[in-house]
Design goal:
The protein is mainly α and 341 residues long. It is built from twelve helices and two strands; from the N terminus they run αααββααααααααα. Strands 1-2 form a two-stranded antiparallel ribbon. A hairpin with a 2-residue loop joins β1 and β2. It is elongated, with a radius of gyration of 35 Å. The N and C termini lie far apart (89 Å).
């Protein structure tokens, strides 16, 4: 019993430590992501959305300089000299400044690689909301408000603005591979090419579709091994047909399979109901099963319709066959009368 009690005490001790660490971790996460009480900060929702202040009231240089400029204490004190008199020291606008400089977090600060001028973008007919549409409803400026590269390029195209790399970048060029194009890039580029959220690796900026095809005609993807060709490519095509379509057209599949049947297509494949066609080939082409089975004897010798009052031209065969009467093969949607005269 003494040994059991000792183990129990150790178990409770470990549980207490784990619980304490979990609580500490939760506090750290809450602090990192802003859960709980939010720190004193500038609210665009209050100043722009509620008070209807113009952007230029705080960002005085936005229309005449590359940098928009940040608020100055004197500009804030026009309103806050009276407002802050009734607030505690920690909630006054002075807390947002240090030595007369606004203490901004710069969540959307652009790196040195990006060339951007507010004067060129805001100095014309464009309103600030063209790029900062949601700023008036946000309490905190965070990275989620930053424009994406796709939004910039879309606007440049619409405005007929320069769209070459050097218009916005200091180092990235069409003739210089991005930093991602290293470290086994030839193995990873296929997945990146299919990624709809890519930015710097958008293939079409430097490559044309023809260059991809020219390369892959001489160098097959790594998974295109002899074993994959005979046993694996069918399953791959079923799971990701769009990937195959990047290089292969339907005719290339048909041309090969006219002479070479899939490994699974052995005698009695899919018997007795022979529903093997629609397992992979559905919907079937306009040619139906005959697209592959042109010379199958059983298809040429299909059972004739009985000569009785029930089996006349225009009879809906599916009212009985396959429901109350047996159907010895798959119903692929074709006109029954095409084979059963």
């Amino acid at each position: 019993m003494a040994l059991l009690s000792e183990r129990t005490r150790r178990g409770w001790s470990l549980a207490a430590v784990a619980l304490g660490m979990s609580f500490l971790g939760a506090c750290m996460i809450a602090d990192m992501f802003g859960a709980g009480t939010r720190a004193f900060a500038f609210s665009h929702a209050k100043h722009v959305g509620l008070e209807k202040l113009a952007c230029i009231n705080c960002h005085a240089e936005a229309k005449r300089a590359d940098s928009p400029g940040m608020p100055a204490p004197d500009a804030c004190n026009v309103c806050h000299a009276e407002i802050d008199a009734k607030k505690p020291a920690g909630r006054r606008v002075a807390e947002l400044f240090e030595a007369g400089t606004y203490r901004a977090a710069h969540a959307m600060r652009l790196g040195t690689e990006i060339v951007f001028s507010h004067q060129k973008h805001a100095g014309g007919a464009n309103d600030c909301s063209a790029c900062h549409a949601a700023i008036g409803t946000n309490d905190a400026v965070d990275a989620d408000l930053a424009l994406t590269m796709a939004e910039c390029t879309t606007c440049h195209t619409a405005q007929k603005a320069p769209s070459n790399c050097s218009a916005c970048h200091t180092e990235i060029r069409a003739d210089v591979a991005p930093s991602t194009h290293a470290n086994l890039w030839t193995k990873r580029h296929g997945r990146c090419a299919r990624d709809s959220e890519k930015t710097v690796d958008r293939c079409e900026f430097c490559h044309r579709e023809q260059s991809c095809l020219a390369c892959h005609r001489s160098e097959s993807p790594e998974n295109h091994t002899p074993q994959w060709l005979t046993h694996g490519h069918g399953a791959t095509a079923t799971l990701d047909r769009g990937n195959c379509a990047a290089c292969h057209q339907p005719e290339s599949c048909n041309r090969c399979h006219r002479d070479t049947l899939p490994m699974s297509h052995v005698a009695d494949f899919g018997a007795p109901r022979d529903n093997h066609c629609i397992t992979c080939h559905f919907p079937l082409s306009s040619e139906g099963c005959s697209a592959c089975h042109r010379d199958t004897p059983s298809h040429r010798l299909a059972t004739r319709k009985p000569r009785d009052p029930f089996h006349v031209t225009g009879t809906n065969c599916r009212q009985c066959h396959g429901i109350s009467a047996p159907l010895p093969h798959v119903d692929n949607g074709d006109d029954c009368n095409a084979c059963h005269h």
